[in-house]
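thought: fold this chain, then report.
action: predict
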Amino acid sequence: MPGDDLAAVILAGGESTRLGRDKALIAVGGVTLLARTAALAARVCREVYVSGRDPGNCLPQVAWFADATPRIGPMGGIMTALTVLARPVLALPCDLPLLTEPVLARLISRRDRRAKDAVMTVYLHPETGYIESLAAIYEPAALGYLRGAAAMGMYKLSRAIPEEARNHVPCRPGEAAVFFNVNRPEDLDRLDDDSLGACAPGQ
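observation:
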């Protein structure tokens, strides 16, 4: 398995205020977003964890840990994961129902080409310069950058890790669609059975 030294960590500590309910437990295509993400993560990493909440009956087989620094968003979950696990982490949000195994596999394979000082491997949208920092690989050395940013009250991941410390993986044409995330009720209406089937774990 390419990601043998990686631990996948599903970021599930958000309050889902715009959606009005816990997005992790919303069923899409008959499967909760959290369970869908966990199944996908298990295909590319041997170890899968949930950060931010106890998945309880939803995923009794998956270990979890609470964010050591709550209320600072996904950065808190990634910092906690890097501290607790002391190993490279594949961070995954729980709200990307169209994310696919090949996209994650390519991210993991490109990690091997990173410069020695790169602490983050992340997809880059060439046309906008936007990076997918919530679905990215963080090396243990990223912890210093994240702690420094948090100490300054800067919790945006795309700003916490400077460009020179990133390993960018350019998105391919049409690949941006897999990063569609569920934030509002109307986002659920945009999903259909065909798109979910094409992006089911293992596709």
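thought: worth noting. The CA atoms of residues 135 and 195 lie 19 Å apart.
final: tokens above.
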